[in-house]
Amino acid sequence: MMNPLLIPEVYKKADVIEEACHQALLGYSYEIPPLPARDLAIFERCSVGIKKLGLSEPEGQAKLLHDVANIELQAMELAFRTLVEFPEAPINFKEQLVSVILDERRHLELCVDEISKLGFRWGRWPVHLQLWSSVSEQDTLLDRILIVHRYLEGSGLDASHILLTKLSGLTNLGPKKIIQTIAREEEEHVSFGSRWYKEICQLNNLDVHEDFNKRMNKIFSQIPKRSVKINIQLRKQVGFSDVELDVLQRIHDNKARI
Predict the structure, then answer these.
(1) What angle is formed at CA 72 by the lines to CA 200 and CA 231, rounded to 5 degrees?
(2) Going by CATH, does the domain composed of 4-256 fall within 1.20.1260.10?
């Protein structure tokens, strides 16, 4: 069975991910590498040595979509990793997770195709693997849901709505339509994370708010620093409580001082 995490080429990863998900649902186990294979240059910090490009020009729009594609690719791979590493998870969770994975694949393909239309190509700029590095083989299922589907995807949801404002004046509507699609569907993904976080807490007789506070402090050193303000109204729509938002705000403030 072809392992999408070991395939460097982005198009081939996208081609094989669906079959790999179905095989994982049937119990097939895939190797989880320290880092997923890539067909482009990698750098450790996402802000080092990269020229800032304005969105009024095609190159700036392509660079933005390249950054988003990198995030969607890692989101796809992280969700697949969860599917593989937690075969004991509830079957409904795993089936819904596959739907999330295929959404992330489609988002990736939308971005890569639009980059090409703008006259550039995937691989034109180096990328980071910061999201992949936020998880570990020591994670529990609740850790993974919190890190990936509530913290990372929630942060991306906050950022996407800021991006839409920045893209509002473009005459080329392609990038804006893609970010609109991603933002709309990421709301469903974060809601998925919120719903299953609470469900699995209940299955394990854990108080949701107490666990959220303890677990966020536990994973503090793993997760990347946020640079975007938390969208309180939007977070409430996708299942975050006032107690959880207070914890996130404290984490955000502490990270900002590091």
Answers:
(1) 65
(2) yes
